[in-house]
Design goal:
The chain is of the alpha+beta class. It contains 15 helices and 23 strands. A 7-stranded mixed beta sheet has the order 3-7-8-14-11-10-9, with helices on both faces. Strands 16-15-17-18-19 form a 5-stranded mixed beta sheet, sandwiched between helices. It is globular and about 80 Å long. Helix content is 37%, strand content 27%.
């Protein structure tokens, strides 16, 4: 029974898309919503998002960012004020034309992002240099009407946080965008056990209306890149479009400089595809809804149940997220069930263990079994959770670093991405070369890895002088 249960997951090497679909649905992370392209995030999946929220809220507070909430309906005219912005989002925008039993005088856009509505409010609130900087964040949903969808990775509606700031000068605004990039990179290291590439987007890949876009990119198990979060230096474009002015110290009116930045539930997709294996989820301990699952063996053995309860209480007292499985299912079924759900540590306690004064700990990431004394179990589990986090991060880092190759021609770049790797290329500053790569290989410029080459190189795509190093990959 247990073996058959696990075999329902598709082979990740043979059919990676189906493996992903099986994992997100069979582990109760999500279900499909009634409207095409939407998802229902179930409690097990939402708990992961809550842990991400809790981490980021603490980091945002350190940066003096305040949480707020803005309307999801935006007058269509707002979107049209910034030309690049509306052009970039036009294909994905959902529009309300009928409400309250009549046609609306002005169409309402269901927010694809909130720069426009927030900038409109900032223009009311900001009057003097004393009002700056303004740093706000909101946790909300956004709607982007995607043609091809997949849970967490690309859905018509998803959850995210979006920060929006205004500064009195460009340097401080740019530093804000770079600071938030550091926060996101730290999120990967500290919570998700995911090594991110961080850097600036090329012109063809930047956010519509931004002066510059910075990104965190992660390599998935299938060699594709996942843009996992972005920060944007918006310069004065939105300030001028929405008349965000302030009186400076010399009593002169100036336009502000703004930024925006965000990550979404797409991060859950990243966790799945960076760490998952043929058995299902492998969750990093610090973000896992359940960090330790206790499985008593011998359901009618009171001493076993008592020992399991005592260990549970000790772990709860140490703020470890723990549960115990006392269902009617067989031990083997339970082992496979919780392995598939990716719980970092499994505890097995049976009558024979009690006779020896021991129990067995099983690591989800390596499936290693560790026998320890019952009285030492709580401390050993806490220690083990940190060991697992570090091991998962290093494994992901090594996997990524081993799958990056230098492209010296269009043919070699195509061969690299066909072999499920990232391509590194020293290229010129002509954006046409990035677009040519995309057209001929399906790989996009994920980020600029180095903006100032110290050695002379020739662009492999046009023969011109190379000025930067860019990472290319196929992506989600």
């Amino acid at each position: 029974m247990a073996k058959n249960f696990v075999e329902k997951i598709a082979d990740m090497e043979e059919d990676y898309p189906q493996w992903y679909t099986d994992v997100v649905t069979k582990t109760n992370l999500v279900d499909y919503g009634p409207v095409k392209g939407t998802m229902v995030i179930r409690p097990y999946g939402y708990s992961i998002w809550e842990n991400i929220q809790n981490y980021l809220n603490k980091e945002f507070k350190k940066c003096s960012v305040q949480n707020a909430y803005f309307p999801m309906f935006i007058p269509e005219s707002y979107l049209k004020r910034e030309a690049e912005h509306v052009e970039g989002f036009a294909p994905e925008v959902a529009v309300v034309t009928y409400a309250g039993g009549k046609e609306l005088e002005e169409k309402l856009v269901v927010r694809p992002t909130s720069e426009t509505i927030i900038c409109e409010m900032y223009s009311k609130w900001i009057k003097s240099y004393r009002d700056l900087p303004v740093k706000m964040n909101q946790w909300c949903n956004v709607v982007r009407w995607e043609k091809t969808t997949r849970p967490f990775l690309r859905t018509s509606e998803f959850l995210w946080q979006e920060g929006h700031t205004v500064y009195s000068n460009h340097e401080d605004a740019k530093n804000d965008a770079l600071k938030m990039l550091e926060v996101y990179d730290k999120l990967g290291k500290d919570l998700l056990a995911i090594p991110f590439f961080t850097g600036r987007k090329t012109e063809s890949e930047k956010f519509p209306g931004a002066d510059a876009t910075y990104t965190i990119e992660a390599m998935m198990h299938d060699g594709k890149s996942l843009q996992s979060g972005t920060t944007h230096d918006l310069g004065q474009k939105f300030a001028k479009a929405f008349d965000i002015k302030f009186l400076n110290k010399d009593e002169e009116l100036e336009y502000g400089y703004s930024t925006s930045w965000g990550v979404s539930t797409r991060l859950i997709g990243a966790i799945i595809m960076v760490h998952g294996d043929k058995r299902g989820l492998v969750l990093p301990p610090r973000v896992a809804p359940i960090q330790t699952i206790i499985i008593p063996i011998g359901k009618d053995n009171e001493k076993v149940l008592e020992t399991a309860k005592e260990l549970e209480e000790k772990l709860l007292a140490k703020n470890i997220r723990v549960d115990k499985d006392i269902t009617e299912n067989s031990p083997g079924w339970k082992f496979n069930e919780w392995e598939m759900k990716g719980v970092p540590v499994r505890v097995e306690i049976g009558p024979r263990d009690l006779e020896n004064g021991t129990l067995t700990l099983v690591r989800r990431d390596t499936l290693e079994k560790i026998v320890c004394k019952i009285e030492e179990a709580c401390d050993r589990i806490i220690q083990l959770l940190d060991e697992i986090h570090l091991s998962m991060y290093n494994r992901a880092l090594n996997y990524r670093n081993e799958r990056i190759e230098l492209a010296t021609s269009m043919e070699s770049l195509l061969n690299i991405v066909d072999n499920k790797k990232f391509a590194r290329a020293h290229i010129c500053d002509n954006e046409d070369c990035c677009l040519k790569v995309k057209a001929e290989t399906g790989a996009t410029s994920r980020m600029i890895e180095n903006e100032h080459l110290s050695e002379e190189h020739t662009c492999p795509f046009c023969g011109g002088k190379a000025t930067r190093t860019v990472l290319f990959a196929r992506s989600y």
